[in-house]
From TrEMBL, chains A, B:
It comes from the Eukaryota. One of its GO terms (molecular function) is hydrolase activity, acting on carbon-nitrogen (but not peptide) bonds, in linear amidines. The lineage of its organism: Eukaryota, Fungi, Dikarya, Ascomycota, Pezizomycotina. This is Peptidase M20 dimerisation domain-containing protein. Residues 211-310 form the Peptidase M20 dimerisation domain. The keyword Hydrolase applies.
Length: 410, 410
């Protein structure tokens, strides 16, 4: 059995690096706090009998040998990086549950069949370096290592430079072929309200919805706000505002809405940032989601149509570039069944599809993968108010232990 | 008579400091290029027989004595600072026309009745340091010198620090009382399409419309874009987008629109700038205008009502603070008559109300003031494509000379 108190205490302890005064976290990938929590993580897994490797994307694999060390390890992983206004659970809980499983197995002196790996994946959030799930994406062959290294932050630093700077640009190739895993389990907070509404502490995750991200660049014409008549303008910010409203309308209109469509513009920047000069340039990012790949196509089509009409009305031009696409994912039936059986034994589960992308989405393309969700208060995430009760965190850890041991036995 | 070629050549010469590759200007108030053009301006007026004073706001007064030097000087002024994506005429033409008048009078060895002042006002644009017309505003007692010095740029520097840094924090008090003028004439490009449509090179400006600027801060709730259902969001950027659309609707709806209302949001900034975190905070600036003070009140009221409804729909809060207000202005009848007579003699004028604010708006509160507009191609301003034909620039300079001499005689 996992130790609920130890799990929760260690989780809070690990949040000392990157915590914010409002109780949240700001541990962006590759920043100084990311370095500190990685150093702590490495020291901790070493204490519990692991060797470790750092790969070319900074992913850390802590390995505990099993009976059959010719097999790749079964991995329990998630991420220690956070959003700029993030909480103390997103990703962190997953790594800490994995660590708790390691501690239990180590203390009980169990020799598992396959080796065990505890994995911290780099830059899952995609907040500082887009796209999200970058470390696991490179590992799974979705992106090249060069692509991963070249991702650039708004400050102008690259992922590769920052990994080098914090001492986590490792020599192990970042590749599912050169550094294989046998399977991947991940605990994560739900980040949505389904378990909270259903009053279930734990979710058995059957898959994840499709995601697409775009870069949008709107061009209008700078002009004086005071002397330019309203009907002689080409206002890039007005056009952008109508696009934001349009995306919302598309995602909230049936039948797409009833099938779970989501559409959001959360990042905007305008120029030339002068109160009395009509904005001539606006850049934004669009995030669309759906459990169904065909609905993603439909949302994209409707957005393009809507944006075109807005552009015609305002004489603005638009560049629209897809910068990330992640199709709908189904996790591995046997792995999901291990999670289900483990959850049943503590009688608290609910079957669920993930609204967020996770490292498990990429690992699932190459190795059997499944996820366990912990309930998250009011469904709030990517917010300092993000909270999962200690008993829910503990339940997720317990389900992880059971699912992992079942799969290892299998 | 003014020298058209010299005026235009000198204008283009003075644009070497702060010019941009696209043919426009980026000479923000208090930056290095502002320092260079000021140094050149001081050298130039010295060559043409002027002494000069720099006041506590960096306004430069170049003085040429007259017959009666107990009188304050009649000023010909405008500004040498520009927008970040500005043109080569806005403000610059006014100072250069004044310089051309000085050259003509100096070379013709005329002794005017009152002394003559050529004035470069500081930070007319309000682009780097809000509000606009700051140097003339402090001079006219609208703002205190402390207020003027404390204005802060987005880089965090203050107006006072930057004046000190470039060597233009002068010792003359910035005050219409301590450093008086007898009157103020200003040439400026129209920055709108009226003269271009009327096919008149020069406008006799009778007044300027009312302006208000606001700071808006919208607060929502950060949440995950993928896992947060569309109906459980408090999206600050979606609310802000609807506010941008609302302002446009108010300004383009009769009867306000037919009376010349204008409303623009041109500056927006959102946080936390992460593609998959719904924006929790948005700040914007609102600029509203009308020739009628009562319409400004009405626009403000309608904006507040509209914003409130949007806030209720999205669960967002709003701070709305008026940061600048400039009532509708009527210029001095006798001064306007001097401009009219001078313009008539070259048979090219059109009576006009200014859509933009100008330093003359503030000087007019304390001393007789009038303005002359030069036609501006397609009405485009605050844009690198801003253009006034050399002959239109020359016509404005010629009208300035005639108006000034008429008033001096009077
Ligand atoms: N869990 C999480 O926030 N992942 C980031 C990728 C996404 O935006 O869904
Ligand atoms: N002329 C000019 O651009 N003035 C700035 C003040 C305003 O925004 O009207």
């Amino acid at each position: 059995k996992t130790n609920a108190k130890r799990l929760n205490d260690t989780l809070q302890y690990s949040c000392q690096w990157g915590s914010t005064p409002d109780g949240g976290m700001n541990r962006l990938s590759g920043n100084d706090d990311d370095q500190k929590v990685r150093d702590w993580f490495v020291a901790e897994v070493t204490r519990y009998g692991c060797s470790h490797q750092v790969d070319a994307m900074g992913n850390i694999f802590a390995i505990r040998p099993g009976q059959n060390n010719t097999l790749p390890p079964i991995a329990l992983g998630s991420h220690l990086d956070t959003q700029p206004t993030g909480g103390r659970y997103d990703g962190i809980l997953g790594v800490l549950c994995a660590l708790e499983v390691l501690r239990v197995i180590h203390e009980a002196n169990i020799t598992t069949y396959a080796p065990l790996a505890i994995v911290n994946w780099t830059n899952e959030e995609g907040a500082r370096f887009s796209p999200a799930m970058l470390g696991s994406g490179v590992w799974a062959g979705e992106f090249s290592t060069e692509y991963g290294h070249s991702r650039v932050s708004s400050e102008g630093t690259t992922m590769g430079q920052e990994l080098q700077r914090i001492g986590y640009l490792g020599s192990t190739p970042c590749s599912y072929q050169a550094n294989p895993l046998l399977a991947h389990f991940e605990v994560h907070i739900e980040q949505g309200p389904i378990l909270d509404v259903a009053e279930k502490p734990v979710g058995v995750v059957k898959g994840a919805q499709a995601i697409r991200w775009y870069r949008l660049a709107v061009r209008g014409r700078e002009a004086h706000t005071g002397s330019t008549p309203m009907d002689r303008r080409s206002d890039a910010l007005l056009a952008a505002a109508k696009m934001i409203v349009e995306v919302n309308k598309i995602a909230t209109t049936a039948p797409l809405s009833t099938r779970g469509a989501r559409g959001t513009i959360a990042v905007i920047n305008s120029g030339p940032q002068s109160i009395n000069t009509i904005a001539g340039q606006v850049t934004m990012n669009l995030d669309i989601r759906s459990p169904f790949d065909q609905d993603i196509e439909e949302i994209e089509k409707l957005c393009k149509q809507g944006f075109e009409a807005i552009g015609e009305e305002h004489g603005t031009s638009l560049e629209m570039e897809c910068i990330w696409t992640s199709p709908a994912t189904n996790f591995h039936p046997l792995m999901v069944e291990c999670v289900r059986q483990s959850a049943k034994s503590i009688d608290c589960h609910h079957e669920i599809i993930s609204g967020a992308g996770h490292d498990s989405v990429y690992t699932s393309r190459k190795v059997p993968t499944a996820m366990i969700f912990a309930r998250c208060r009011d469904g709030i995430s990517h917010n300092p108010a993000e909270y999962s009760r200690p008993e829910d965190c503990a339940a997720a850890g317990e389900v992880l232990l059971g699912a992992y041991l079942r799969y290892d036995e299998h």
